[in-house]
Design goal:
By secondary structure, the protein is an alpha/beta fold. 45% of the residues lie in helices and 16% in strands. It is built from 13 helices and twelve strands. The strands form two sheets. A six-stranded parallel beta sheet has the order 2-1-3-4-5-11, sandwiched between helices. β1, α5 and β2 form a beta-alpha-beta unit. The protein is elongated. The model has no long low-confidence stretch (mean pLDDT 90).
Length: 343
Amino acid sequence: MASASIKDVAAAAGVSVGTVSNVLNRPAAVRPTTRAKVETAIARLGFVPNASARQLAAGRSDTLAYLVLDASNPFFTDVTRGIEEVAKTEHLSLFLCNSDLDADREDQYLEQLTQLRVRGVLITAMDYSNPRLTRLREQGVPVVLVDRAPQDGHDWCTVGVDDVSGGELAISHLLESGHRKIAFIGGPLEIPQVTDRLTGARRAMETAGLSADDLSLIQTDALTIADGRRAGERLLGLPRSGRPTSVFCANDLLALGLLQHLVQLGVRVPDDVAIVGYDDIEYAAAAAVPLTTVAQPRQLLGRTAARLLMDEAERGDDHHHEHVVFQPELVARASSAAVRRTA
């Protein structure tokens, strides 16, 4: 059976289409007796208002969009919760898009969001130089960069964590525990956050009087548990004499995968290999060996980004772009507790 239309409601209530429209959009402008007749007709016919058409006519959508790198990563789940809190208070829906670390897929989503005319877009991107981001703003759609520190020449609102400082925290912690043979596991290096964490790690090595080249690099194709396991295979495949005694992983999923692989093969963590992750997702503290990690304020990132987006959407040209940078914190747990002496 075809859905009831606004004309069907008007005919059933004995009023004009304009009156039905007023009941839906400006009920205070309609007399209570007339409004009651229309509402009765709506209920009897099962009429469902066309929200898309109403938003198009109003020139604004009731939907926000968040484009993430990897929806399977609990870090982005927590950021999304923060965004959702703000969306709920603003009576808006949230559309979640997953690029899955695929630049082409990210580009396709941006094209779709341009056509959908969403209220605003939040994005943790593979490619922040994508011209489609600029095109969205040219069409009046505000864009906020999430989990990204401000960059020169980018006139956007940004909300992120100082990932360079986070990398320094992780390596400094391992150096203070006596480690000198340290590896960094992460990738792809095209992801800005991974590169920043590596930069901080190398900087900490140099500050300690070591060479940045003394930090072994094991690149991964993605930031997943499976890639962490594969990195563990490569780590254990290195000659024992030169094998790193500690590892800093670019995120917690890699660290958890590495931890699983080492424990399954009888490698003691942290006695044989110490591990530090990044993000402090919920599973980090619950691991078989609780994971030392660099914590980010995940939900706060989302709430802050969403509030900046709403301010830009409401104020337009009167909005002033802000660059909010949170400082990470090291959370020390059992995976790095063993103290090793320099040889």
